What we know:
Blueprint: H1 5-20, H2 37-45, H3 50-58, E1 67-76, E2 94-101, E3 117-123, E4 128-134, H4 144-154, H5 158-167, H6 169-179, E5 192-193, E6 198-201, E7 207-216, H7 225-230, H8 236-246, E8 249-257, E9 277-285, H9 293-296, E10 312-314, H10 318-334
Antiparallel strand pairs: 1-2, 1-9, 2-3, 3-4, 5-7, 6-7, 6-10, 7-8, 8-9
Amino acid sequence: xxxxxxxxxxxxxxxxxxxxxxxxxxxxxxxxxxxxxxxxxxxxxxxxxxxxxxxxxxxxxxxxxxxxxxxxxxxxxxxxxxxxxxxxxxxxxxxxxxxxxxxxxxxxxxxxxxxxxxxxxxxxxxxxxxxxxxxxxxxxxxxxxxxxxxxxxxxxxxxxxxxxxxxxxxxxxxxxxxxxxxxxxxxxxxxxxxxxxxxxxxxxxxxxxxxxxxxxxxxxxxxxxxxxxxxxxxxxxxxxxxxxxxxxxxxxxxxxxxxxxxxxxxxxxxxxxxxxxxxxxxxxxxxxxxxxxxxxxxxxxxxxxxxxxxxxxxxxxxxxxxxxxxxxxxxxxxx
Length: 335
């Protein structure tokens, strides 16, 4: 189907109107005295002046540029209603669209790095639940100013990284965590974490804070140095798609509950392993809907972690609340 420029403009305006309407839920104070959303996107893309920003728009720069889409289902745990009052989880089985990716704006990045990312859309009858997760359970910044500084400095190479280690304790902790993380043999063998906190309604109309954790049923499978050397720079996509031709990739989804002493608005802090975890359900990636257009083109849409069903609300974490407008800003630039 061919679109005229006029029609494309109208479509673009409609998309922006729909997605920006979600920002009404985010307090203006969230971004007060912080970097603006366009500045944050520029920092991620490495486009810190007007000329480089326009060049970035032309090549449709985006984070997590190397990735692919696939599909499956989500089955809520049978007794989840005894733990939470979230009507969305009353459904027996819900369609899942998944995107697995690497970090960064390079679509030709090597798979031999240790970073793994999983984004999910779980689209129910009336509501949806989206996830944006990685295989790191600690974040590198607790506010938007530090986020901007981190993204700017890492693009300066070794010198910028050393500056962060010397001057930003949260960034230093993150680098130490990543340095101890081994590349996994598959996306299916990675644990995935939501570093941001959400508030979950309980059956007695109270709220508890928690974070998402995806545990691979197949277990973790870190690669040794000799094993990694034998891999190509593009092994992850084929490995997962070939795997699910025979056996689904499965994760158990948990909510890790906070205690009163835990800081729920700071993604740089990892809560102790002793915290209670509640099984929410199981994600099964089997590729059964991969021929559908919505799945094949899922990388052209937004995985919005603030698109939440009744019974789940965002915490006041500034990093979490900046995600949606930042994703929208990036999306509009690529449209």
